[in-house]
């Protein structure tokens, strides 16, 4: 059996004042324990009472939507949950952004409009994203052709803001000179273009990100050529512009394309397919992740990646910036559900025991850097077919429930919960509760946050956070290594300095990866159609394991785009890798995707542990050695 997920228990001092509300491990005074337990019991009992009293229409809504409505209507409920925030954003006009799963997109879209809502996107398969009045939720959810109404799925790009002084200096330079990514030299792409006579000519590389707001500005400055933007898919933001500049720096004669990934998850999947079918893109790269992409099964975005790679496209995706177990920066935990021998006050169901030893620990504490971060919970049921009901709770140091996700899973729902850490305060901790059903393998992720030791609580985290479409079987999941100056701020207070890159030299075996780069491996339990890979075994010994991330590429590089000077994160690494692939394909236009993969992987410079490792994959790719491995002859 391949061991890919090792639980790490480590003690990192953090004065957050958290206390464990179970027997035998609290050092607090009894009166404090009693008061905290009373607050926990009142809050969780109130939330679980809601779960037990749902109307037929409310059973189709996420728990956050239901709780938000009830809190607004019931002052006595609000008194039991004084520190609670549903996480649902309600506009001044009283609307919420929602995703609606239906069987008839146009009929539901018309109903949304009739209810005073605005349709943002409607797909042919019935997925509708809309801004809907909170007061209209029950009417829409109560329709026979509606299966689910939930807050609009959130997404992130994987860029990191670094040293502001450095950005300001680069911004001044950009006025006078064209910016060139330091990754061009660090990957040896500059010399490879001359040695092998390659430039990306004849290859179309397309980007999916947030938007290209300053595309015209970059073109006017000579930073970019013409870019083929899918009709109506320009998006909003500028990370896409920065990614395009990187590709153009390394593969200056490649044709470029773009589409936004931010309209909705269904739109993201549709745009992946459209870039291949309509845009004729040979290489596609993205830096986006939706929070509800399953780690255990290829869902809609990963399925779109599978479709375009099966059609011959090369696909590159950011591995993520959620940290890794090797550097102690992980905010991720996965493992078999372990029934706790102790209870959490007010809870119906069984808490998960994070501690594999004889000590019981029902909570995992969160770092100060986790403020405002989303926390997701998945378990090993098939997508859309979960009959085992798990819930997620976030508590503060005084025992109050501050956020939760308690969707009902009765056989036709997703094995997924999400809640958000408050943006202020301290002493937060997470609990996972099996409300009903069978034990499953669970995945808990505080996205871009961290699990830490706090008081009597030990920190439990694992490797394996890279997931979703970046872990699709034929995608290249790309980790990050700095090309030039170090990332300019500590990831969390008290962290060691971040590594610097080799520029103006080349990457070598002694180069370091970014401490925030997400790790693998990725265990999956289901095929894309929901059939089990190992029927009857969806535990840590079942399923299949994918070696992700695949490769490493440069970040921390110059662009002319405001806010990306320099451009850090796996968002910057993925376009470097895509551009190097474009050089290979221009050097050998008949090369197959399998041949390109072999050339990149076999010639990569090994970093970290010998061979494949869970942070950098097979290592940092280099343009010249990859061209040679592909059999391209020097000119």
UniProtKB/TrEMBL annotation:
<dbReference type="InterPro" id="IPR036852">
    <property type="entry name" value="Peptidase_S8/S53_dom_sf"/>
</dbReference>
<keyword id="KW-0720">Serine protease</keyword>
<dbReference type="InterPro" id="IPR023828">
    <property type="entry name" value="Peptidase_S8_Ser-AS"/>
</dbReference>
<dbReference type="InterPro" id="IPR000209">
    <property type="entry name" value="Peptidase_S8/S53_dom"/>
</dbReference>
<feature type="signal peptide">
    <location>
        <begin position="1"/>
        <end position="27"/>
    </location>
</feature>
<keyword id="KW-0732">Signal</keyword>
<keyword id="KW-0645">Protease</keyword>
<dbReference type="Pfam" id="PF00082">
    <property type="entry name" value="Peptidase_S8"/>
</dbReference>
<comment type="similarity">
    <text>Belongs to the peptidase S8 family.</text>
</comment>
<dbReference type="InterPro" id="IPR034075">
    <property type="entry name" value="Glr3161-like_dom"/>
</dbReference>
<keyword id="KW-0378">Hydrolase</keyword>
<dbReference type="InterPro" id="IPR050131">
    <property type="entry name" value="Peptidase_S8_subtilisin-like"/>
</dbReference>
<protein>
    <submittedName>
        <fullName>S8 family serine peptidase</fullName>
    </submittedName>
</protein>
<dbReference type="InterPro" id="IPR015500">
    <property type="entry name" value="Peptidase_S8_subtilisin-rel"/>
</dbReference>
<feature type="domain" description="Peptidase S8/S53">
    <location>
        <begin position="247"/>
        <end position="619"/>
    </location>
</feature>
